[in-house]
Each structure stands twice: as structure tokens, then as C-alpha cells.
Specification:
The complex is a heterodimer of chains A (about 300) and B (about 60). Chain A has helices at about 1-25, 40-60, 65-70, 80-95, 95-100, 100-140, 140-145, 150-160, 165-170, 220-225, 270-280; strands at about 180-185, 190-200, 205-215, 240, 245-250, 255-260, 290-295. Chain A has about 300 residues and is an alpha+beta fold. Chain B is elongated, with a radius of gyration of 17 Å. With about 60 residues, chain B is α+β, with helices and mostly antiparallel strands. Classes of the chains: A alpha+beta (about 300), B alpha+beta (about 60). At the A-B interface, helix 8, strand 6, helix 11 and strand 7 of A face helix 1, strand 1, helix 2, helix 3 and strand 3 of B.
Chain lengths: ~300, ~60
Amino acid sequence: MLAVVFSVLLTLYLIVPEAIFRTIFGYFVPEKHFVLTRTEKAYRAVLVTIAPLGLALWASWYVPVAQDFPFSVEKNTIENRRADYTMVLNALYSEHEFEKSVPEFWHAATRCIRRQARLIVWYLLLVGLEALGAGLLVLKYAEYKRMTLYKWFSNKILFPFISEWYPLLSPQTLLPGTRVQADLLCTNDTLYQGFVAEHFVQDGKLTGILLDEPKRFERKAYLKEKEEGKSPDKKLFWIPIPSEHMYFFSDKIVNMNLTYISPRGKPADAEAVKNFIKGVLGRSFGEEGKITISLKPEKPAPKRE
Amino acid sequence: MVTTLSKLVEMIERGSIPAWLRDSILERKEEIAKALQAGNPYTLKGPNGEEIEIRAEKRVAAA
């Protein structure tokens, strides 16, 4: 009997709260992006439940409203509480003890269940609030990411088991406004380009990528013109594919080149700009195609009067 | 995952370019190439007053 009660308590105090946390936090970062072993799942369950449980326990003992609401118990003193739990545990442990005090046992058990139900209500509410808070902290990643405490918190608590594909292919949550342009070389020796609309993972492994505005590079025609001694313009060999979205199975992708396009108003990184220009223009100028870049930051917005 | 999320995000940020700059470079690719080949700098202006000047590096004569 004790084992059954223990299983019920484990479900109510660990499995259900972790599921609630996962569901609410999943609205901000979908669960499929986390890669966890069974041990890591158990570790995360303890990690997300320990603070709300401690707080709920403290509240149900000392905070006036939480002491009695919901499922109030009359004369809920520390002594009565201890006596009730002792009686219930003894009766569950030994049939002899149970038979000795059947009527008192049911009264004590009812009071214990009411206390536990009250604690669980506050506990689950706090787990929900914690998940909501964690989700809102994820949305603030771009704003707070340079703060030491936040950086530690996000690395160790918010995203310790996140798949690397999440920041690489869906950085929009962490860096709002950033778009990912992908050049995919496929097993049919064809190069495709487009903006990453969605990526799909299973157990942390990439299964596919959906590209918006897909284009195909006519490599054979391009190489032929090059062999003929012409200087072909790469841009003309990108042929738009008449489809808004195109799905690529990951096992057909040989490699991928990712370009991140930051939103308007964000200062440019000189090295990234240099690499992009060199990629677009090739080595058709300067010594070995070397260029220098000088950046002038954006003008400050005019002050409001 | 062999690296932390913050390292990956820093890497992405270091490698990202503004959308206006990407569009301007792709649109004026020929103009930029011509200017650089002629040894002239080329300046691109952003929507918020930011400017990016591109110059081809000059060959340094061997001593």
C-alpha cells in the first residue's frame, strides 16, 4: 500500500508539475528542440520543481491565505498535523496498526489528503508561473544576453539541453528579426538557396528543412560558360523554383552554408560585411580580392521635445 | 550539444549582416565591382544614417 501511495505522490509532485512546465514553456521554445536522456529528464524535473515546491510548502505553513485556502482543515496546528501524518503512515505501513485505529485513521487520512491537495494546488500554480516566467525570460534573450547572471541562467537553466539546430536554423526567438538564408548542396549535386522557414528535428537530429523563396543554381551551365572562357554572372544562374516553400530531407543534404540577415537598425559587423561582399563580388578586384570596410554608425534618433 | 547556446548566438551575431546592406549590395553589385576595379571607394548608406565605405586594398610594392 505504501508503494502505491509513493507512486501517486511521485506522479503528483514530479511528473505532473514537469509536464505542466513543459507545456507552458513549450509555447516559447517547443519541446522537440530539447534533447534529453532519461536521466537528464529526471534532473530537469527536479530542477524545475524544487523552488515552487519549497515556496508552496512555506506558503501553506505560514502565509495566511495559503494556510487555509483551498481545502481548509480545522485546528490545523503543527502538533495535529504531525499526529495525523504519523497515524496515516503507521497504518499504511502495518495492517495491525490500521486495524487498531480504523475510525481515527479515516479522519486523519481525510485531513492529510486535504492538506496535500491544498499544497498541490499552490505548488502547481507556482510551477505554471515559473514556466511562464522562464518563457518570458527566453523572449528577453536578445536584451539581457550580455548580463553575466542572465547568461549563466540561460546556459545552465533555460537551455542546457537544447539542440544546436534551434539557434542555428531558428534564431528568431533569441535574436528577433534575424533571417537565415541557406545554401544547400544536395546529393544530386545541385545547389539550392532560400530562406529557412522551418526546420524539423527528431531526438535532436535534423530530419528536414523548409525553404521559402527557393532557387536552384544551374551549376552545369555556369561551369560550361566558364570553360568557354566567358566570365558568367553567378546571379543569372540562380533560377527561382515556382513554389513558395520547398522541403528538403536532411539525408539528401551534403552540406549547408548559412547566412544570417540581421534586422534593420542593428549595427553591422565589419568582418561579416566584408565576408558577404567578398562572397558576392568574388575576386574580381584588388590584390587577391582583398577589400577594406569602414563603418559609420547610425545617427542617433532626434530627441523629442 | 558540445557548445553553450550563448556561444552559438554570439557566433551568429558576429556573422550576421543588416538586411538593407544585403539588399543594397545585391542590387548594386556591378556598380560596386566597377568602382573597386577603378580603384575608387564605394559608399552605401543605410536607412538610419549609417554608412559603409568599401575600398579595394592596394598592392604594396615589394621592397
